[in-house]
Amino acid sequence: MPESPRRTLKLGAVLLGVGGPGQHHTWLDPQIPTDASVDVRWYIARAQEAEAAKFDHVFIVDSQFITPDSPNHYLSRLEPLTLLSAIAVHTEHIGLVGTLTTSYNEPFNVARRLASLDHISGGRAGWNVVTSGDAGTAGNYSRDAHFDYATRYGRALEHVRVAQGLWDSYEADALPRDRERREFLDPTKLHALHHTGEHFRVVGPLNLERTPQGQPVIFQAGDSEEGRDLGAAIADAIFTHAQTLEQAVAFRTELRERAAAKGRDPQNVLIVPGIHPIIAETDEEARARQDAALGARSFEKALAELGRPFGWHDFSQYDLDAPFPSVAAAGALSFRTQAEGITRLAIEKGWTLRQVVQHQLDAGRSPFVGSPLTVADEIQRWFEAGGFDGVNITVNAPGDFARFTDQVLPILRERGVVRSDYESTTLRGNLGLPVPENRYTAARPEEAKAASLVP
Amino acid sequence: MPESPRRTLKLGAVLLGVGGPGQHHTWLDPQIPTDASVDVRWYIARAQEAEAAKFDHVFIVDSQFITPDSPNHYLSRLEPLTLLSAIAVHTEHIGLVGTLTTSYNEPFNVARRLASLDHISGGRAGWNVVTSGDAGTAGNYSRDAHFDYATRYGRALEHVRVAQGLWDSYEADALPRDRERREFLDPTKLHALHHTGEHFRVVGPLNLERTPQGQPVIFQAGDSEEGRDLGAAIADAIFTHAQTLEQAVAFRTELRERAAAKGRDPQNVLIVPGIHPIIAETDEEARARQDAALGARSFEKALAELGRPFGWHDFSQYDLDAPFPSVAAAGALSFRTQAEGITRLAIEKGWTLRQVVQHQLDAGRSPFVGSPLTVADEIQRWFEAGGFDGVNITVNAPGDFARFTDQVLPILRERGVVRSDYESTTLRGNLGLPVPENRYTAARPEEAKAASLVP
Ligand SMILES: Cc1cc2nc3c(=O)[nH]c(=O)nc-3n(C[C@H](O)[C@H](O)[C@H](O)COP(=O)(O)O)c2cc1C
Ligand SMILES: Cc1cc2nc3c(=O)[nH]c(=O)nc-3n(C[C@H](O)[C@H](O)[C@H](O)COP(=O)(O)O)c2cc1C
């Protein structure tokens, strides 16, 4: 397929409250109110800062299960879409990406809430499709156990397909609302879905008209075979992690190939890892800041949180200096890929439990550390080498974020890596993604179609 | 029980988009944009007007099923809680009451979304608990048929009890967030629910701390035996209709008795019917306006919409001038009470189908029609006779609403029937309702409790 001219680097801001995953130390930062995770004004202010810096989107993670060992940010926080709707009416341009799980929601409700957000925001809604990694979530939804991987991801695929079908319920010109002709609805352009699948049966139609983006933008993350397959099938953009440039290029290449194998244009599948730039006046100072931040973390908390990918397995029961226990199976229904990865590495390296916890503490080490010039150079190098199409920056301390927007971004703008202003009113437009054609309009003869597409 | 001093009349504003139930003619009103039901700015402006008039709350109705015959407002509209969150951050005092069905939602998700709205709004969230009257809703949620009445209401009761349990997950002082002591959480004040019931099993805890209102305010509506019983058990406020003062007094008396029989203080169960005041300079003019509005309705549309309580039964198949067909059973899973009521009346009166449709068209006739003084007198008379504790005013045309706030309310304020300003920062406070004590705090010894209640 011929490559279209390369897009600019896309920018997302991960809005955590205080003390997100692997960042339980951040709640001690005097710049961040300790109750930020339930303070709508805090989120709105951060989103406005990201918008002033012309970011493409803000992103809200989610889970529906806690234990007292959960990271601080998880213990008490606002539901993502309720929060994003409040942010929507205090911003104008920035995309609003919320996490909703396909495992414990009905597709009719999900389709409706996202379409509502798309209308409220004038075309800025995005959906981070997840399947819920915490196996304990099942207990909050009348189930004995979480779905196994095949079911989790099978259900996710069908869930997204149903939502997409519901979003097409109304063609663009289905509601003429013509007072003179007394015609509110053109019933020939309102379509029931009549979906019958393995996991869902949904008649439709959705009780909400076509949204400004046609369909909200779909984001997804998942490292397993099943997770990558889902992303390649449905995602407009894929969230991931990136530890080295080689890994990043390999992941992006693989996902683009998978998408192409499914008949999709890989240009329309953006790879967007989360990165954590640490910026100071000099490289040395930045490295020292990173070391100080890593050093401030609590070993006990890290030991408890190590349990999460393993279905909140209690590692405090083991001898810290004995070889890492073989309990990967405990994570079979949770974050299986992560649990298996940690276990494999521990066995390969012959690590003790203490060494594994120490490794987890160090895993927060960022490849983007240094002066503004160093960080800008490194981001550009990864982008140009095909490591990513965009990056998600974690916004915790406003000061760290300001260093990125005020000192790194101007360099990347100057070099044409990042655009200098919004180019569209919708998230889809700013990401350079095509508007999906309504399936019923597409099926009409050409003349009827041309007429339908006017509004 | 000794009566505490009578509260002032409570005021709610029903925010419909355009052409709500029985009001399909309103979309022709040039004052109302035809796409109001999907325009967040329209809703925000109406809520701000209601707040300027010191209303206690705005209220958003809901359903999750449409046919091309549905009222215009139902065909395409925003999901209630997504909408209310946007309104929350553009208002300061007014309560935000959203409809969520217990039949097609999980209690964990409902509890979380309402608690999030309560945090975002600083204590102004309310939940209109419904069970979904449209039997066709089942088809959008992987079910062959809607729940029967006993199940619908049994599930509703358990659903609300689970939500209330989840709202108590954190005691008020469970999150000290004390940096010096490195104490974010006091785990002894975080409680799992471990609920196991007929319809739900929910372990908990909720991942959101106690809200500003302690618990969001619970509204409910339901005319059947089962519906009244649920209201008496769980509602802080009960929505209803009121056609005559005698009916209103009877309904309020009965519901208060039911609540008392369940051991509740009837003072804490407010009865709030929807009313539709029609105001003009003189009584004659107001009556003429009502006749004009009723005359503008379409017989065909009313015939189609008559089907709704009967599970969208198609009445166009019958002879208009033959006796009303005996099809009450078609409504057994829908709005049963309404379907039975219409059928009973038709048989009693010996009406034809045409006469029933005409009666439905006339049923919109309001008991509150006249000059501002006439309407104020009538509202005061009903209030003082015990017909209601508050009223829900349907806001469609901004002009009609302004006539009520600018011309009727000053008279009621002058007479002390309506308060002149907000008395609390929360909806619960403005309605004069007590804050429910957290069940775990309540179970503590007195000294521990006193300490807990400080924040
Ligand atoms: C950047 C990133 C963000 C994620 N955000 C969430 C989230 O908000 N909620 C969630 O339940 N899972 C989240 N996940 C987890 C995945 O969606 C997936 O459930 C998990 O990785 C386990 O599946 P896997 O084995 O396929 O990776 C995220 C993963 C990544 C890489
Ligand atoms: C004022 C009022 C408002 C209502 N709002 C809704 C609503 O928004 N959504 C809904 O599904 N039902 C709504 N209902 C219907 C009831 O909650 C109930 O489902 C319906 O009346 C059928 O049950 P019943 O036979 O017990 O009345 C409302 C009823 C009344 C009286």
UniProtKB/TrEMBL annotation, chains A, B:
Any Pfam family matching the protein: Bac_luciferase
InterPro entries assigned to the protein according to its UniProt record, in alphabetical order: Diverse_substr_monoxygenases, Luciferase-like_dom, Luciferase-like_sf, NTA_MOA
Keywords: Flavoprotein, FMN, Monooxygenase, Oxidoreductase
Protein name (database record): LLM class flavin-dependent oxidoreductase
TM helices/strands, residue ranges: none
Domain Luciferase-like: 38-386
Domain of life: Bacteria
The family this protein is said to belong to: Belongs to the NtaA/SnaA/DszA monooxygenase family.
